[in-house]
From TrEMBL, chain A:
Origin organism lineage: Bacteria, Bacillati, Actinomycetota, Actinomycetes, Glycomycetales
Domain Penicillin binding protein A dimerisation residue range list: 52-136
Gene Ontology biological process terms from the UniProt entry: cell wall organization
Keyword Transferase: yes
The name this protein goes by in its record: Peptidoglycan glycosyltransferase
Listed GO MF terms: penicillin binding; peptidoglycan L,D-transpeptidase activity; transferase activity
Keywords on record: Transferase
Native species: Stackebrandtia albiflava
Span of domain Penicillin-binding protein transpeptidase: 161-485
UniProtKB/TrEMBL annotation, chain B:
GO MF assignments: lipid-linked peptidoglycan transporter activity
Species assigned in the record: Stackebrandtia albiflava
Transmembrane segments: 17-40, 46-67, 74-93, 131-148, 157-175, 195-212, 233-251, 257-273, 280-298, 364-381, 393-417, 429-449
Pfam families named in the record: FTSW_RODA_SPOVE
GO biological process, one term: regulation of cell shape
Polar residues bias locations: 508-520
Name used for this protein in its record: Cell elongation-specific peptidoglycan biosynthesis regulator RodA
Compartment(s) of residence: Membrane
PANTHER family in the cross-refs: CELL CYCLE PROTEIN, PEPTIDOGLYCAN GLYCOSYLTRANSFERASE RODA
Length: 490, 520
């Protein structure tokens, strides 16, 4: 009976080999499939059992993890002490609704999964002490961020708007505000009822508080677009003193509508480029585009300034667009920031940043520093040049023109003046459709500008956007921008 | 080959002792890793837990020295290792156990804080009970070795054993409780018993008895088909009876696994007894046919098959446990999450029984689970070896049957939780929580120990000191145990071994044989 005993042994070995092969399939070949499976709670539980790193700006903590009370399935809960003004930056970490904002983009470092934290995790294995995730330090200056939030929400009840403040030299984002906003704390609750109620409230709110209006939404820029046109004109060989055709009305070829100026402030037949920008003459810029420049230089300049390009700060920035310029009627409208030209508030701030930084446009960047749990630096946020849209000479001419907008007695940007500092900028007022009765909706108010400190350094560029603020909207935006730049200069 | 005559047969008990100490060390490391992961520190409990288990194992070792001194030294350490891993892991599962809370309408942890977990008593919860079952198992192991000095005594009352076996196997169908759709358990008031585990052993003895007597007849061939000789029609009757009974059991207790196990065991033993491949073909066809026949009327079986075919069809309902088992294993990957660092309770509530191997695979990874698989395979191979070594047909059949049943049951269990075959209600031998299973498997271990002792014991000296050594074995019956033993036996501190105080041993001597050249 020994021979069949051996054969049965072989049968068992074959059965075990099948088990082994199948285990290889499940545990090795299909590892990623199961690891990332929608029904796998393990990743979440593991994530919540380690203290997640903090998101920090200046001396303020924007997001951190605190131990939960006993009995909670998860060991740590996420909280956002400064909630609303910073909610679009931090995003939320929710058991039910996943992650958003920096919680999502910086998850690797915050959760401690980043390869650079491998040694920490390894020591955890041996020492048994739990290692927290790494920290993300933002370039945001909480003071400016809060001031921008207060200023925009203070304009009117439920005011929709956004502001972006940049350091033109490095591209660092000093403030990035979107109003209205939401409180991420209930979304991070471990009580599913609480988080789902908050989610329903936010997502059904017609004002859409979870939309980041500084980077994720495109708006017609109005006259701030004239900075792009002026840059294209200067790059094409004009100077601020070049006389361009003007007047109080202009009907481009094929166009059904006549372009006018808001207060008939440009009656002269000819004005210098600088004067046209200072008075924000729609007619002059429309004619300049249609009769002198043509569509290509406008599109090329817009592209060089970052239009048409999605950016990562590391939050996503939508690509601004110049739209269809093929017909003179469209081109004329585009050059005064209407028709299909649309940009993000971030892009609007980048226009001024490029001018202030002498023609070198830096990529906007929110991250100042990535830290290990013990607060040693792992990495600094990158400082990369995004593009070089125009020469330093063109930049100098543009500066002269934009500073005149603020300083001249008839300039539209007077509200942004800061005593003792050089400030340049451009206001904008944009139409954006009609209501159900056919009446024009209240216009958007814009201001994009920059300021130099006492050492002649371009320390701040800004864009303030007030949606549907109506008459005086751009003046209000200009005032807020001045206030934010003053804070940045201090 | 080795022509030298040795004066003594090594008992190899010191090898067993060394292997057991290694097992205890492995268990201590495992428990330490679990405690560091779940408690953040090594507590006294680890020393007590592993100490008590180790003590029980060493008691078992001493009893083997007394009652079965020539037993295979690998069998007991294999059983001890698997049982110990089970105890440690079930306790680890207790620490992270979850229950459904009516208040929170969600699963909440039973021991939410580290302090709660650290306060978990040595004998609390399923893990503590498993530790007590281990003591009981060692007692049963000892009792068997003490009472059954010669395995042939087991064949004295074959029909009583056989009848008891069938009654026990069928009993849950009549008075059993239904758990997870299958009726495998009987509630005795103070404890739940899974009688099929014991029934398996009783029936196995009966099969062996019966097949030894009928093997000549069953080996007769009447006609050939495709070159394979097939048995006579009238000899099919007993096979058909077993087939019918196993189908009835499957219908009665609604478990494909138990039925598959019984029938597979019977077919394997039939083959070992007759050496006729035709019996395997007949057996497989009968079983497949039977399953296909009752499949349309058996919704539980249909459900098991549909879950097997597509567990993700109902990932939060019927398919949940298999989905979570696969996700656990898959997430574990090659190296696993580490002891105590996984989430094996996701297969709640069967995490410590049917799905204990998924949990181990999640935390120990493919490497760890493969190592466990190897321990099982070692146990099976050593069991088969005991069958090769033992001299009588009855012993060979029993040993082969026991070893095959362990291997086959593991295949059914692990195949089930890894989606190789449909899930059944079987549990991993030695590891899964449950007293019946553990006790029955330690009786099985005791039987293999007894059989291996019978095979290796010099025939002139059934007990006590050995005077005459049996001649060397044919080499194919003694492949692995040649060199290391005498060296180990000479190590200091092992002088109490009754086998090591004789003259120097010959390192090239082989083990005793089933075919002695010299009759004493």
């Amino acid at each position: 009976m020994n021979a069949p005993l051996r054969r049965v042994t072989i049968v068992v070995i074959v059965l075990f080999s099948l088990l082994f092969l199948n285990l290889n399939w499940v545990q090795f070949a299909e590892h990623d499939f199961y690891q990332n499976n929608a029904y796998n709670d393990r990743v979440t539980i593991a994530e919540y059992s380690r203290q997640r790193g903090s998101i920090v700006a200046g001396s303020e903590t924007l997001a951190d993890s605190v131990p939960t009370e006993d009995g909670d399935e998860y060991k740590y809960r996420r909280q956002y002490p400064l909630n609303e003004p910073f909610a679009h930056l931090t995003g939320y970490q929710s058991l039910v609704y996943g992650d958003s904002g920096l919680e999502q983009t910086e998850n690797q470092i915050l959760s401690g999964e980043d390869p650079r934290l491998f040694v920490d995790r390894l020591s955890e294995l041996f020492t048994g002490t739990e290692v927290a995730g790494g920290n993300v330090v933002l370039s945001i200056e909480p003071e400016i961020q809060l001031a921008a939030w207060e200023a925009i929400t203070g304009v009117s009840e439920g005011q929709v708007g956004a502001a972006v403040v940049l350091d033109p030299r490095s591209g660092r984002v000093l403030a990035q505000v979107s109003a209205p906003s939401y409180d991420p704390n209930p979304l991070a609750s471990h009580d599913n009822q609480e988080s789902s109620e908050a989610w329903t409230a936010y997502t059904s709110d017609p004002s859409n508080p979870m939309l980041d209006r500084s980077t994720r939404e495109l708006y017609p820029p109005g006259s701030t677009m004239k900075v792009v046109v002026a840059a294209a004109a200067l790059a094409a060989g004009m100077t601020p003193e070049t006389e361009i055709s003007s007047g109080n009305s202009y009907t481009p070829p094929n166009a059904g509508t006549t372009i006018t100026n808001s207060e008939n402030q440009c009656p002269e037949d000819e004005l210098t480029l600088q004067e046209a920008l200072t008075r924000s003459c729609n007619t002059s810029f429309a004619k300049l585009c249609v009769e002198e420049l043509g569509p290509e230089p406008i599109a090329e300049m817009a592209e060089a300034l970052g239009f048409g390009q999605q950016l990562t700060t590391p939050l996503g920035v939508e690509a601004s667009q110049w739209g269809d310029l093929s017909d003179p009627a469209f081109l004329a409208q585009a050059c005064i920031g209407q028709h299909e030209v649309k940009l993000t508030v971030m892009q609007d701030a980048m226009l001024s940043a490029a001018v202030a930084n002498g023609g070198s446009l830096m990529s906007p960047q929110l991250i100042r520093e990535i830290q290990a749990p013990n607060q040693t630096t792992l990495e600094f946020g990158p400082e990369d040049e995004l593009s070089n849209p125009f020469s330093a000479d063109v930049a100098a001419d543009l500066r002269k023109m934009m500073e005149n907008v603020v300083s001249a007695s008839n300039g539209t940007g007077a509200n942004a003046r800061i005593e003792g500092f050089t400030v340049g900028g451009k206001t904008g007022t944009a139409q954006h459709g009609v209501d159900e009765n056919g009446n024009d909706l209240p216009e958007h108010g814009w201001f994009t500008g920059y300021a130099f400190n006492g050492d002649g350094e371009p320390v701040v560029a800004v864009s303030v956007f007030l949606a549907a603020a109506g008459d005086g909207g751009s003046g209000e935006a200009t005032r807020i921008a001045g206030e934010l730049m003053r804070l940045a200069l201090e | 080959m080795t022509a030298r005559q040795a004066t003594r047969v090594p008992t190899r008990r010191n090898v067993e002792l060394a292997l057991l100490l290694l097992v205890i060390l492995v268990l201590f490391v495992f428990q330490t890793a679990v405690e560091i992961a779940l408690l953040g520190e090594l507590t006294q409990t680890a020393f007590w837990l592993v100490g008590l288990m180790g003590a029980a194992m060493l008691v078992a070792h001493v009893l083997v020295r007394i009652f079965a001194p020539y037993a295979d030294p690998v069998l007991l350490p294999c059983g001890a290792m698997l049982t110990g891993i089970g105890v440690v892991f079930i306790r680890r599962l207790d620490m992270s156990a979850v229950v459904f809370s009516e208040e929170a309408q969600a699963l909440v942890q039973v021991y939410p804080t580290v302090e709660d977990r650290a306060a978990l008593g040595l004998f609390d919860d399923p893990g503590g009970r498993q530790l007590m079952y281990l003591f009981a198992a060692v007692a049963v192991f000892a009792a068997f070795l003490w009472l059954v000095r010669d395995h042939r005594n087991l064949s004295r009352y074959p029909f009583i054993l056989g009848l008891t076996g069938i009654l026990m196997a069928a009993s849950p169908a009549i008075i059993g409780q239904e758990i997870n759709g299958s009726k495998l358990w009987i509630d005795l008031g103070f404890a739940s018993v899974q009688p099929s585990e014991f029934a398996k052993l009783l029936l196995l003895i009966f099969f062996a008895y019966y097949l030894v007597r009928k093997r000549e007849v069953l080996s007769l061939a009447s006609r050939k088909f495709l070159g394979i000789p097939f048995p006579r029609a009238k000899d099919l009757i007993p096979v058909l009876v077993v087939w019918l009974v196993s189908l009835l059991i499957m219908i009665g207790i609604r478990d494909l696994g138990t039925s598959l196990l019984f029938f597979g065991l019977f077919v394997a033993m039939l083959y070992i007894a007759t050496e006729r491949i035709s019996w395997i073909i007949i057996g497989l066809s009968l079983f497949t046919g039977g399953v296909l026949l009752i499949y349309p009327f058996f919704s539980h079986l249909q459900l098991r098959v549909s879950i097997w075919l597509d567990p993700f069809a109902d990932p939060n309902g019927d398919g949940r446990q298999l989905v979570q088992s696969l996700i656990g294993l898959g997430s574990g990957g090659l190296f696993g999450a580490g002891p105590g660092a996984g989430q094996p309770q996701a297969t709640n509530p069967a995490a410590n029984s049917d799905f204990i191997l998924s949990g181990l695979g999640e935390e120990l990874g493919l490497f760890g689970l493969t190592a466990i698989l190897m321990v099982y395979l070692l146990l099976v191979a050593r069991g088969m070896r005991a069958g090769l070594g033992v001299r009588d047909s009855f012993g060979k059949l029993v040993a082969g049957g026991l070893a095959f049943s362990v291997g086959f049951q593991l295949f059914v269990v692990l195949g089930g939780v890894t989606k190789l075959i449909p899930l059944t209600g079987q549990t991993a031998p030695y590891m899964a929580a449950g007293g019946s299973s553990l006790l029955a498997n330690w009786v099985l271990l005791a039987m293999l120990v007894r059989l291996s002792d019978a095979g290796r014991r010099p025939q002139a000296a059934p007990a006590g000191p050995i005077k005459i050594a049996p001649p060397p074995a044919p080499v194919d019956d003694s492949p692995t145990q040649i060199v290391s033993v005498p060296q180990l036996a000479k190590e200091p501190g092992t002088g109490s071994d009754p086998g090591s105080d004789g003259p120097p041993t010959d390192p090239y001597r082989t083990s005793p044989s089933t075919t002695p050249e010299v009759k004493p």
